[in-house]
Amino acid sequence: MSLRPALGVAATAALALFAATPSTPAAADSNQSVTADSNQSVTVDPSGRIAADGTITLTGTYRCSDNTGPVFISSTIAQDSPLVRYGIGGSRAVCDGQAHRWENIGKPRNRVLKEGTAQVEATLMELRPQGGLPLPAFLATQRQDVVLAKS
Length: 151
Known about the structure:
The protein is mainly beta. The protein has one helix and nine strands; from the N terminus they run H-E-E-E-E-E-E-E-E-E. It has a single domain, classed as Immunoglobulin-like (Sandwich). Strands 1, 2, 3, 4, 5, 6, 7, 8 and 9 form a nine-stranded mixed beta sheet that branches. The chain is elongated and about 45 Å long. About 17% of the residues have low confidence. It comes from Streptomyces chromofuscus.
């Protein structure tokens, strides 16, 4: 298997594992942040955009440094039911210790999201090489209530 499909499989497995992890009582709060250390952080902007075709744009900031593997920013969104979350894009992070902006764009398959309040979670995740296989290390997460407005 070449490197690109292997990284894709590892990232998919990591996101599935993260999505299957039950929430703790503290994680149930609307707006919260969990960070492994002060060099790693991710934020979510309080507003997002929804296009006429249902495409969602979410933004925020991140900071990371001293990483050994590739780092990604993923985002999910929920509206109406916190049990149903939709993945909205994903982007590669530059880990140089500086603050950077991120933007993820995606469109849920069955256009179910609408203007108004939604709950967004952004995750900063590194794929660390261990025993020849890249394994996920979650560096920071941020849950934020967001207002979706027409773009």
